Amino acid sequence: MSLPPVFRPRRLAPLVLVCALLGACASGGGDRVSAPADVLYGQLKQASKGYETALRQAREGDAEASELSLRQSLDLLKQASAKCATTSGCDPQRFFSVFDRLLRLKDGDFDDVPDLSGDVDSSQAALVTGHAGAASLPQAQRSVTLLHGQKLSQLIAMNGPVKAALEMWLTQRRPYLMDAWVNYQYLRHEMWPAYQKADLPEALLFGMVAQESGGKVHAVSRSGASGPLQFMYATGMRFGLGVDNGFDMRFDPAASARANAEYLNEQLRIFNNNLELVIGAYNGGEGRMRRAVGDDPSVSFYDPRIYDQMSPETRDYVPAVLAAAWLFLHPDSYNLRFPKIDGAPGSITLKRAASLDELTVCLGSADGMEEGWFRTLRNLNPRLDPDATQPVGSTLQVPKPLERAYAARCVDGPWPILAADLHRATVPVVPDPAPAKAAAQRTTTYRVRRGDTLISIVRKLHCSSVQEISEMNDLKHHRIRVGQHLTVPVCR
Question: Is 399 helix (H, G, I), strand (E, B) or coil?
Fold first, then answer.
């Protein structure tokens, strides 16, 4: 990021070399540490102290001295970690521990001194709302200080599950993480203010959005959880996410962020600000978490008494959220580069009737969006059916850069004509033979008993499926109730 002339140190991205080299470090066959390894550990300690000196000099405004201290400490750290690969008895965990400690150290509150890592680009640091004191800090720096007075980085234990989740985000799920980042940047002006008002860190919001929906506002899970933060129907209703003129408010990004923030703050009070337990409760249910925790809300989520009682999904969910939040704070330190996104909100007034589908076609890859603008238009206008034509004079929410692109591409010329022609295209309808077959199928009635689920009912029948019974009874989100009479197939 661009730093003031007062202090312009090197970025700490080279620290990621430590992590890259750790995998190559060899471990000795016993507890005895070799003399060469001892030398490396001494250099490691010296590099760590040099980094702390750089931070202190930065706070004191001595830019030149801080630059020198930072460069020397990083060079020493890289040299020591590189030699670990060929040094008998070298323990890579020591190098990782220093790397982890330095990341947490830089998350300290330096008031108006910029974050030394520069992990978040200045284009991402524009604030939506906030007082003057907060506005003077880079966004990442402000994020780590807002969890009820606790720094988020101090609440994320860099243990095995979180490390595994970091690797997953940086490898197999990397494209998903990048999509979540882009989607979130365009939704940020709607979602972040609710978290800011609730005194919750933005990194946590991003972690939950990334894990829950990838920033897709209309996401619906197999269990019926809906929206960018995946609220179940009953929980959504408890926090004011009802139905407004036929629109499910769980799909509203601003409303869902508010409800999510209220839920987290409620659970933080219950679980004594134990963030891991709260995130686990969000996924696995607060009732289940309360029963597991009992009278000890200080217990770690990873304690076998808690961890072993959680579902596999929840055991993966908690570290995944925390790892995504950690990467939000420290992307460069993990060799990750989020794209620069101008997420400033804007709007257009339609000069000619068009659907969101048609606008997507005529906008094409405007402003460098290679994947097109369909997802963003849907996210910013969640109440609109993307296939429905909106009349002239309708106002749609769009990213600010698209205002000019709309005027240039979608009002006159060939693109709106092409888009309208494609939208009016019809596909021949082939009669479905399924209804006739279904009509001949024999059915009977099943009365739902306490403890029944669609899955358990299907297992009793031995010949049907959850989908079939759900469709036969027009069930929404597979919900059933005790005493309900279901139409089920007669199984021979």
Answer: strand
The half-sphere exposure of 319 on its side-chain side, counting CA atoms within 13 A, is 21
Pick the CATH number of 435-489 from 3.10.350.10, 3.40.50.150, 3.90.70.10, 3.40.50.300: 3.10.350.10
Tokens 């001494």 correspond to 42
Residues 6+ apart with CB under 8 A from 333: 12, 13, 15, 16, 99, 103, 117, 119
297-350: pLDDT as tens digits: 889 999 999 999 999 999 999 999 999 999 998 888 888 999 999 999 999 999
For the domain made up of 153-334, the CATH class stated in words is mainly alpha
Instruction: Give me the residue spans of the domains in the chain.
Output: 1-110, 153-334, 345-423, 435-489
Model pTM score:
0.70
CA distances from 474 to 78, 440, 444 (A): 62, 19, 16
Could you give the CA distance from residue 381 to residue 251 in angstroms, rounded to a whole number?
10
- Taking only the tens place, the pLDDT of each residue in 418-473 is 999 999 998 898 887 655 554 566 888 989 888 888 888 887 887 778 888 888 88
Alpha-helical (H) ranges within 330-397 are 356-363, 374-380
Can you tell me the distance from the alpha carbon of 377 to that of 368, in angstroms, rounded to the nearest whole number? 15
User: What separation in angstroms does the CA of 461 have from each of 173, 194, 470?
Assistant: 38, 47, 14
Exposed/middle/buried for residue 384 (C-beta within 10 Å: 0-12, 13-18, 19+): middle
Query: 3 is written with which tokens?
Result: 């730093």
Q: Which residues of 58-84 are buried (b: 16+ CB within 10 A; e: fewer)?
A: beeebbeebbbbbebbbebbbebbbbb
- Collapsing DSSP to helix, strand or coil, 271 comes out as coil
Tokens of 157: 């234990």
Question: Which amino acid, one-letter code, is at 356?
Answer: L
Rounded Cα gap, residues 472 and 468, in angstroms? 6
Confirm if 217 and 379 have CB atoms less than 8 A apart.
yes
